[in-house]
Design a protein that fits this description.
The relative contact order is 0.13. The protein has a three-stranded antiparallel beta sheet with strand order 1-2-3. A three-stranded antiparallel beta sheet has the order 4-5-6. Helix 6 runs antiparallel to helix 11, helix 7 packs parallel to helix 8 and helix 10 packs antiparallel against helix 11. By secondary structure, the chain is mainly alpha-helical. The structure holds acetyl coenzyme *A (ACO).
Length: about 425
């Protein structure tokens, strides 16, 4: 028998039944699509803590157990056994690619990595000290002004080509934002390099000398991209879906996603972690900061700790901490004071009743900043890197939404607590 749930109005005694939907994994979902029509009431859920906004087959998270899977494959397997291009294919098409499919996909992405030459002018319109995320929002949004040939969201070929363009151009866009801040010439992508190699090459090469990408760092970058590729219906992904629900073009939607990711409670956390570790400055000061994080009257939070969904160790944080050790070893960085502070902070917080009780564990951003810093990536680029990795997830989720026959424009309602109708007062009589 199909599952239902009953809702009763205790005052009138009226009762309604709503269907309960079962997914392949995770909690059941109460189908309240007819709730308003039947009860004349809305549901209230600021921050969507209890609300499923869509049906999806892409990513599954069990936050209590610390499980993350893409299309059924655990993140640990993907991070260890695949490269980023394979994971991107998996997210987009639902299956890992065969060798032939992989070669074609790799070629499709590689041959869209260049930016229109006019983007040189576009970049030079920004101040040199503009934040890379501000530049990325602008440049990605502007892509829609360059690709009129692929903006029909109802045409599957247009959707596919826009998707490829977005994934392919994002490393170029991010690396050029960095080059622009330095006043160095833009470096063009190279077709013989992998996705991760190309990004490092465009970031660090100059026209003056040969630059060889360090394979250990390229491998680490590839893994970091995999770890950030998708994460279910988080704030930026939901932003992309909401923007796309109106029929907006994919470049505009991804620009909206980048804006949402920028905040310190989301993708901006990796930058915030490093700022926090620098502010702590010495292991001796950790207890003082832990005390502040627990103080209700202090806004300070331990950056890189806590997650809306994970109430256990974020599985990506484990892989990130291993990758961090590999990178520091390769770069022969023996003493990294920030890493020492991070490890000690993690140890102290994980033994503290406040963090245990609230199930606050390190999230993916806790170690990523230290790796980026060791690689020579400046702090302001951290979130830009996250955006470049997450673009694959965003476009996969956007495609899924467009193809969903149940898709409607996203339009939440509200609990109105403002003034009720009152008499208009002319300006002269206002006090
Ligand atoms: N340090 C101290 N206390 C915390 C922290 C933290 N990092 N995170 C949550 N808490 C406390 C809150 O004060 C709250 O306490 P209360 O119940 O006594 O009021 C409780 O834990 C629950 O916190 P909420 O903010 O209600 O949880 P929510 O799910 O809304 O927030 C979030 C999750 C935003 C990630 C939060 O944990 C946070 O701000 N963390 C720091 C920023 C960060 O690392 N963000 C990256 C997230 S991962 C990502 O986007 C890639």
């Amino acid at each position: 028998m199909a599952k239902t749930i009953s809702v009763k109005d205790d005052q009138t005694g009226k009762a309604w039944k709503f269907p309960v939907l079962e997914g392949t994994a995770g909690p059941d979902v109460v189908d309240i699509r007819k709730f308003y029509a039947e009860t004349d009431m809305f549901t209230y859920d600021p921050g969507f803590t209890s609300t499923g906004s869509c049906e999806s087959k892409i990513t599954f998270i069990d936050g209590d157990k610390g499980i993350l899977m893409h299309r059924g494959y655990p993140i640990e397997d993907l991070a260890e056994k695949c490269n980023f291009e394979e994971v991107a294919y998996l997210l987009l098409f639902g299956e890992l690619p065969t060798e032939k499919q992989y070669k074609q996909f790799e070629r499709d992405i590689t041959y869209h990595t260049m930016l229109h030459e006019q983007f040189h002018n576009f970049y030079s319109g920004f101040r040199r000290d503009g934040h890379p995320m501000a530049i990325m929002c602008g440049v990605v949004g502007a892509l829609s002004a360059f690709y009129h040939d692929s903006l029909d969201i109802n045409n599957p070929d247009h959707r596919r080509i826009s998707t490829y363009r977005l994934i392919a151009k994002m490393p170029t866009i991010a690396a050029w934002a960095y080059k622009y801040s330095l006043g160095q010439p833009f470096i063009y992508p190279r077709n013989d390099l992998t996705y991760a190699e190309n990004f490092l090459y465009m970031m660090f090469a100059t026209p003056c000398e040969d630059y060889e990408v360090n394979p250990v760092l390229a491998k680490a970058m590839d893994r970091i991209l995999i770890l950030h590729a998708d994460h279910e219906q988080n704030a930026s992904t939901s932003t992309v879906r909401l923007a796309g629900s109106s029929g907006a073009n994919p470049f505009a939607c991804i620009a909206a996603g980048i804006a949402s990711l920028w905040g310190p409670a989301h993708g901006g956390a990796n930058e915030a972690v490093l700022t926090m570790l620098r502010e702590i400055g010495d292991k001796k000061r950790i207890p003082e900061f832990v005390k502040r994080a627990k103080d209700k009257n202090d806004n300070f939070r331990l950056m890189g700790f806590g997650h809306r969904v994970y109430k256990n160790y974020d599985p990506r944080a484990r892989i990130m901490s291993r990758t961090c050790a590999e990178v520091l070893n390769e770069l022969k960085i023996k003493n990294n004071p920030l890493l020492d502070i991070a490890m000690e902070l993690e140890r102290i917080a994980l033994e503290d009743d406040y963090f245990i009780e609230k199930k606050l564990y390190p999230n993916v951003d806790f170690y990523s900043g230290i790796i980026f810093q060791a690689m020579g990536i400046p702090v302001t680029m951290f979130t830009a890197l996250f955006a470049l990795a997450r673009t694959t997830g965003w476009v996969a989720q956007w495609q899924e939404m467009i193809e969903d026959p149940q898709q409607k424009i996203g339009r939440p309602r509200q609990l109105y607590t403002g003034q009720t109708k009152r008499k208009f007062v002319p300006m002269k009589s206002r006090k």
